[in-house]
Amino acid sequence: MSRGIKKWSEEAISRLQREGRGKGRGPTYTPWIYITDLYSQGRTHEMYSHKTGRQHQLLSDGERDAFIMLEWAQDVVDIREQYPLPRDITLELALEAGIRHPYYPGTHVPVVMTLDFLVTKVVNGQEVPEAFSVKVHDDLNDAAVVERLELERAICQATGMPYRLLVKERMPQVKLKNLRWIRDAQLDSNATEAFPGFYEEHKARMVQDMATRRFDGSLVDYCAEYDRRYSVEPGTGMRVARMLLSSRAITMDLNNPQPQVAHMDSFTLTALPGRLRSVGGI
C-alpha cells in the first residue's frame, strides 16, 4: 500500500485526485501510483522515455518489458501507466457481470482500478487509445486476478477501446534484451560528455563513415577501429552505434541473440550523411 496512505480511505483518494493523479498527457501525465508510494516496492522500475519526455513508474519486471516494447513501436505516440478507471463505471459493470469489485484490504473502500498502460497509437492518421494489462503466467491461475482482468476487459469493451493482455513469459526475450541494450545507450539527465554535443558530433561522423566505406568485419570490430581512428575512449564507438540504432538511423535484426558480433553487412544504414534521423522519419 501507499507509504503516505497506511489505510486507504475516500479522503485519501480525494487527495490524490486533487493532486492530479491520472491526469495529463505526454510529459504532463501523472500516474495514479508511483513506485515511491508502495509500502513494499518489490521489483519496480523508474525509466525515462525520450518519446514521452518523462519518468515512467513501472511496478514489475513485466511492466518494464512491456513498456520497452510499447516505447519502441513506431505507431505509439504516448504511454500512460497506472491509469485510473472511474469507480462508478467499474462498480456498475462489476455488478452487471456478477464479479466482486476489489476493495482495499481491511476497508470497505472500493479500489480505484488502474490499467497497467493506456497507450495512444496513430492509425491512419488518427489517434486511438489501446489498453494493456501485464501479468506473469502464474497470475492466470488465480481466480481473483482473472476476475479483475475480465472486469478491465469489460470496461474497455464498453468504451470501444481495444484491450490486450500481455504475459511476461510470452514476450520475445531476445528482442527485449536487444532493446534494453539499445535504449541503455541514451543519455540521461546525469550523463556527462567530453564536451557539449560530443555524441551528436560522433553520430554524424559515424553515419558519414558508414555511408562512404565498407567494413569487412563485425560491429564490435568496427566500433573498436572507430575508437582508434578518432582517438576516443574505448566503448565510445559502440555507444554511438547503439544511439544510432535507437533513432533507427541504423537498423538490425532485433532477433539476433548476439548483434555485437554480427557482420556489418547485417546492419542497414537508413540515415543520409548530414541527417541523423532515418529516411522517412521515425
Characteristic key phrases:
282 residues; alpha+beta; Trna Endonuclease, Chain: A, domain 1; Arc Repressor Mutant, subunit A; 2 domains; 4-stranded mixed sheet; 8 strands; 34% helix; elongated
Describe the structure.
By secondary structure, the chain is an alpha+beta fold. The protein has 2 domains: 10-171, Trna Endonuclease, Chain: A, domain 1; 175-269, Orthogonal Bundle (Arc Repressor Mutant, subunit A), CATH 1.10.10.10. Helix content is 34%, strand content 17%. The chain has helices at 10-18, 61-72, 87-97, 143-158, 173-183, 198-212, 219-229, 236-246, and strands at residues 45-49, 54-58, 76-84, 114-123, 126-135, 163-167, 250-251, 268-269. The strands form 3 sheets. A 4-stranded mixed beta sheet has the order 3-4-5-6, with helices on both faces. Strands 1-2 form a two-stranded antiparallel sheet. Helix 5 crosses helix 8 (236-246), helix 6 crosses helix 8 (236-246) and helix 7 (219-229) crosses helix 8. The radius of gyration is 22 Å and the shape is elongated. The mean pLDDT is 92.
